[in-house]
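Sharing a chain and its predicted structure for anyone who wants a worked example. Both blocks are below, sequence first, tokens second.
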Amino acid sequence: MMIEADTLVGSDGPATNSTPTPEEAVYQVMHAAIAERRLPAGMRLVEDQLARLFCVSRARIRAVLQSLARERMVTLQKNRGAFVSYPSVEEAREVFQARRLIESALAREAARMVKRDGAERLRAHIEREKVAVERHDRRDEIKLSGEFHLLIADMVGNATLSGYLAELIARSSLVIAIYEGASAHDCWLDEHRRIVDALVAGDGETAALLMETHLTEAESRLALGGEPTASKIDFTAIFGI
């Protein structure tokens, strides 16, 4: 089934123009499916199957998989093919360590830059997160939680850091999909609220400390050392095409 590229404008991904190329469009759809945990970690991605599904050449699919591999969203194995990455426990801890180092600094800097419109955007985003929690919409919760952290980075205006953070957040989603424990709960929303309160108050040190604590708590809720689960996948349903 053909994907119309112009329907994907605004999706996650490295589109360089207002209308992405077919290759960029496929990248955006696949990146979102992995980041939002619709494609499970460890799943094999078959070039022929994806090429037929997206109505593009295998060469385009191969290029997309290579792009995802550079971001560690996909693992390419010689003579075996491509798989959705399955981060190890060590990699999981490294991802959260990197996020703490980067995001505490971003929160400290963002507190100096939050103006009235920024405060309104943060408050509005918290309300969207609250609605997702009340609806028990786990997919939307995951998406909005990542967007919250990127919104703070955006206020600082450092495109390089924002790009790196987007990659870390996507990898965090993979980690959480694998290791989310039975003790996981929704207190992250209250933690986000407290971070926003500190940012709006211009208290950078408190915002930085709250961010570091928030990410440490997120890591502590994971059952690191979990085993993968196998499931039958309906690609058409996953990609919505």
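Comments welcome. The chain has two domains: 5-86, 89-220.
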